[in-house]
Amino acid sequence: MAGVTLKTVAKAVGVSPSTVSNAYNKPDQLSVALRERILNTARELGYSGPDASARALRSGKAGAVGVLFTDKLAYAFSDPYAVGFLAGLAEVAEEFSTSLLLMPLSSTDIAGGSNAVQQAAIDAAAIFCVPSGNPALDILANRGIPAVSTDRGDHPDLSWVAIDEVEAAAQLGEHLARLGHRDVVVLVDNAEAAGGNPVELSVDQVGYTDCELRIQGLQKAMPDARLRIISGGHNAFSSGRTGAEWVLDSQDRPTAIVGLSDVQALGALEAMRVRGLIPGRDLTLAGFDDIPAAEAAGLTTVHQPIREKGRAVGRILLDPTATERQLLMPTELIVRASSGPAPKA
Amino acid sequence: MAGVTLKTVAKAVGVSPSTVSNAYNKPDQLSVALRERILNTARELGYSGPDASARALRSGKAGAVGVLFTDKLAYAFSDPYAVGFLAGLAEVAEEFSTSLLLMPLSSTDIAGGSNAVQQAAIDAAAIFCVPSGNPALDILANRGIPAVSTDRGDHPDLSWVAIDEVEAAAQLGEHLARLGHRDVVVLVDNAEAAGGNPVELSVDQVGYTDCELRIQGLQKAMPDARLRIISGGHNAFSSGRTGAEWVLDSQDRPTAIVGLSDVQALGALEAMRVRGLIPGRDLTLAGFDDIPAAEAAGLTTVHQPIREKGRAVGRILLDPTATERQLLMPTELIVRASSGPAPKA
DNA sequence: TCGTTTTTCTAGAACGATTTAGAAGAACGA
DNA sequence: TCGTTCTTCTAAATCGTTCTAGAAAAACGA
């Protein structure tokens, strides 16, 4: 059973290797009868189709697209937003019978080359919320692998599928401003705080492009407001809770909390619930993304078509007929019960 | 920049290709100075390390493990349970700097060989909740790819990491029996109902091994109870809601509903909420898996160490020092507010 | 019947690396 | 000084395909 190759089959049937190859890849290049005979013999010999690596090497197609996440892979799955993106991407991948290669983005050994991004056999790559400075992006560029990012990059020739982060956040900001909020805390993803101790950051410490832009949008829409940037850790439910707890238990409570992702906002919601605070009445809470759980929780948030975003990335990567290489997706402010007027001072 | 290979670099530096290869793979096989020189030249030429496919072909290692899901990939991500498994697996994969190849399990073209499972360049495979009859499993076996399943299979030589489904379900069944429940509806995953019309099934129509075993466990623990098996579609929140709606709006309400996954149970919870039914008082609700949301919702469920399950699978697949090839993980009944005594008839 | 096209199949060269076995020179111990 | 052992590097074979160009046979049109 081991060591059965195209050649073995070819010899057994009495034809050339090329013909066996064609039996699998170009059925119209040989007679039906012969193809049948070849496939049967292959089955008998326990040959299960052309070897993936060899085929990839010769044809230059790996049949897989890579997916790059920020942080640890394990983290990526905890946000339904990321998962939704993946689901959309998976849909298109399935359509083109291409596999999805999830690549751990470990920072070690980048130089040595023993890196997953370096080693991966992929035809293209989807870059999900990876800060533009990341060395992995250089490696991809170096390898000449076409990539699509979920952030609008700096380079004009980079493909992306994104939203107008500033404008989207500005809409939310206007909503809050109209409700009279002047004192807002923004919850962000940050590695520094991952230990469990919340930190307050300045805008340029944030790191992630999308987060920075969202904060800019908020500032733009509410220039008179006091905006504090707080992180309780990585982008996760628990970080949102931790960050919110810190804020809520301080002497200096804001009138509104904005999570830059829904998972963080929902974490904050939990912190409020424990303290008997009703969102929309005692304190306004808003999120970003509009994940399914946000609706159930009555969370005011900015909807972005995440699944469609994944699909669009997939199409740019896989569909040769897709010409548009930079796509701006629409967003929509979804007002729910968690936002309400600021209490009169 | 294109067409730069090992050979190009070798020629430029004035050494043999083998030496360049060693510079990347076996640093101790050549002098530090030469290695430095090679790496520098490579950088200058825009060579970004050995080609993945070629390396995979020659060395026989792909540097990736495949992950097989039931149904569509897109579906897989909607269940935090599946995501948790993936996260655990990803952790170990990361450790061994191996990538995760998510393979769409489309049923088409299996025979023709243009299947992802057929084509994928992988060293090993994790099989997540795939029914044992699936042709993809045969393909894997045929290709001689080591695999670990999350279900205890029929073959004694198959590796698996699983729970004692029967026993776990029986614990839940005993709990319900003690509370006096005699009329129970079980919500299961089923393709037939995917159109949106709930269906009632017999045990042998269920299809998934794990679900069947869980139902067996329930039956064992509550032999006197009436057990109806209902499906509202695939394993998802919405299916649980649909199934529960159908049951709740019928003339023949049970006293307890058991979702064979937490997502389905939470869907049912939503259906109850809409109808003003308090879980644990008006009707008992239980789930399976103990995903994070179950705790927040106060859902009685069976905890299984999903992340650890993923890690264990990863270790069996990747860690050569791991000898145990069949692992039974512990489960625990978690009683929360959603289960209560059956109303006196 | 003869040239031309179409169908069916093949030979042999890539694809880009790794591996094995071994050569050349340096270092070493006695 | 001589044989032995390291260290450092190389030549050539090989991994299992697919591709390009073209040959042989069959079908076709006039």
Automatic annotation (TrEMBL), chains A, B:
Q: Does the keyword Nucleus apply?
A: no
The record's InterPro entries line, in alphabetical order, gives: HTH_LacI, LacI/GalR-like_sensor, Lambda_DNA-bd_dom_sf, Peripla_BP_I
Transmembrane segments in this chain: where?
none
Q: Name one Pfam family in it.
A: LacI
Keywords assigned by UniProt, alphabetized? DNA-binding, Transcription, Transcription regulation
GO MF annotation, one: transcription cis-regulatory region binding
Q: Which domain of life is it from?
A: Bacteria
> Which residues are in the HTH lacI-type domain?
4-59
User: What is the name of the protein in this document?
Assistant: LacI family DNA-binding transcriptional regulator
